[in-house]
Each structure stands twice: as structure tokens, then as C-alpha cells.
Amino acid sequence: MHPSITGQYLARYQRLGAGDPAPGLLPVTGAQRRFLLVRALDPAGRADIVPMFFAFPRGTVDPARLRAAANHLAARHPVLRSRACVVRGTPVLRPEPADVPLEHIAPAPGEDARDALRRALAGWVADGPPLRLLLAHDGPNAEEEVLAVVLDHTACDGQSLARVVEELGAAYRDRTGPHDLPPADAAAELAAYKDAVLSQLAAEDRAASPRALAYWAERLHPAHEQAPLPGARRMSAELPTGATELLLPSPPGGVPFPALLDACRAAASALYGIGPVSPIGYPWGGRPAGAGPVLGCFLNTVVFPADTANTPAPEVTATQWWDDLDRADTPFDDVVRAVRAGGSAWSGRLDGLLTVDDARYLTPLRLGATPGREVHIDGRQLRAPFAVSATQGPELHLRMVWDRAVLDDRAAEDAFAALCAALPAGEPVH
Fold it and tell me: What is the pTM (predicted TM-score) of this model?
């Protein structure tokens, strides 16, 4: 049996410190390693980024105060001030002094603030600070300005985003900057982060057991991506991605996760036909047991084989999902290798993505006494043919985006309608 991919990485990382007890390099989690690999293989070297957009009344944002607050965060949290690099073939993070840029984005003729921010994000340079701020408005007479808080995905997961928003607002309120952080606190955060990542890697290594890999090899053997590779479908004047959304009443307790998986099965059936088994990925995970609540990227991608030829009873999907969760820590890379070693034709590409958020943990950014209004800006790159986000709260907010180089708008909109129809929810909220 081959050593796990994580085990091989751990061995290489430990060799970097041979003869040097403090090489100053931080290890990366399996998710971070995958993001860096995808970036390296991307012809344009694009990074996966996570932007949050907040609209404020014009003049609310004090740029110097906001940048000081962001640098306070970066000084405290190592992952927000570390650059990814490869040392002797081993991907690592190298901590640097906090230096969060705030860039004013001026709209070009014919652009509004959203167009300008979309253009700026498309030109994101991967070799730069993992946390950046962008500020734009529609023009001299604009009543609002839009602030983009943007993170490299290697620096954040869902748990991190809420803390970034909360702590950025607190530092802005308290007018704290990077020099207000005691060196002992910075050192403690650095040690806690490194410990959390090493604990995560040890957990990932254990989760790639022969029994778990055999389970996934059997479970995903029939899966095979159905979506074509990106082509030249979209027109040059269109945004690269399309989007649609709907607000539905949420049943008491919310919509069970297996029901959302079955809804994605309905979408895949509408897009790719009845019969195939489409791999649908969803992020899962959290900090390892005993680790501190550090900022970072501690998620794993779990794959659901959406069998479009059969729609099992809800309790069957639920039982299968609970069985999957027992092995949800098995790293995606090891899963793909095990499935392909078992003779599957699956390449590791996904036909779709599903993410679920809890509205209770989604708070707007507050700058001083003014809360921002979170807004969506579509048209950014997508690593899958389609992605569905479900925000659970008093209502169920469903949102679907798709890659226009793979799917046409009508097909994607029909798939979203099939997804919504498959859910145990009521009529749309108007």
C-alpha cells in the first residue's frame, strides 16, 4: 500500500527543518495544497479567491483607519500575512510582516462600481498578500461605495470568513493597528496556527486508511464527470458566468443536507441526462480536535455520486450520506487516487458544487456605527460547471452560478428550476 499523499507531504515538510530547528516555514493543509496545485496548473496562474462585498453610504470608509484595522488582523493571524512558495519541491507558507493593500478602483468609461470590481478581481495577481481590500463607487455623484474584502482561498474557509468580518469591524471600531498587537500574542498565534495545521495533517493521514480508501473506491467507482471541458460557448460581451437565485420558505429545522444533495441530483439530471452518475462535491470539515480556533483553510471536498438514473427515497440518501460522513476526512487527493486505482474512469473533475451556510453566522461588516449591506457581484471565474449555494435561515436562499463556457443559460436555468422543484419547500417568497 502506498503511503498517503498527506503522509508523503508531512515527510517532505519535516525534512525541510533538518539541521534548522526554526526554518520559518509553515506547513499547508490538504485543501491549501490542492488550491496551490490548481493554481500552478492553471494556464493563467489564477488563484481561487473569496471576495465579500459590502455597500456603504458614500464617505463612510476611512481608508487609513480601515487599512490599519486590516493590518492588525494580518499581524495577529499568520495565514493572513503569509505568501505561498515551494521550497525543494514542497509547498509551504512563508510568514511576512503585515501589509494589507487598499486599492481605490476607478470605473472606466461605461463601467459602474460592480464592473470595476469585477475587472479588478479578474486581474488578481496570485503572488501577493492573501488579504486585500478594494473600494469602488459609480462616479462623482454616487451615493454608495462598495468595499470588497478579498481573501485567497488558501487563507480562509467558511469558519474563517465570519471571524474576519467580525474582527475587522472590531479593530476598525477600536482604531487598532498592527503595532497594537503585543509580540507575545503574535508568537502565540503563530505557534497555535502551526500546531493546528500539523494536527490537521496528522488527521488527514489517519483518515486515508486502507479501509476508508476501499470504501470510497467502491462508492465512487461508477461516477464519471459528464460536463464537457470549457469551450468557446460564451459571447465576448457576456459575463463568463451566469447566475440565478430564489428565496423559499424553510421548513422547521431547515432543509436537511441530504435533501439538498438530492436536489443537486435533479439539477445534474436536467443538465447531463438521465443515467450517468455525476460527481458533486461539497466542502466539509473543521479544525481538528484540540486545535485552537485559528483562521485558515481546514476544509475537505467530499464527493457525492449523483445517480441520475435512480432517485432513492430520502431516507436512503440520508443513510448513504451518514456513511460518507464517517469517512469525510479522507483527503480528496487520496480518494481520487484510490478510485482511479480501482479502474474507474473518473478523472477527479466535478460536475457541480454545493455549499451550505447558516444565516445565523453571516453578519455584515460594521465600520464604526455604520453596518454595510452585503451585495453579490457575479461574473467571476468558477472551477466547476455549476455551483449551488444554500443559505439556511428563516427562509432558504438558493443561488446557482454556472460557467457559460460549459453550459448555456437556458439549460442552467432549467436545471435550477429542477433543483428547486425537488426540495421539500413551499412556494417562492416574493
Answer: 0.93
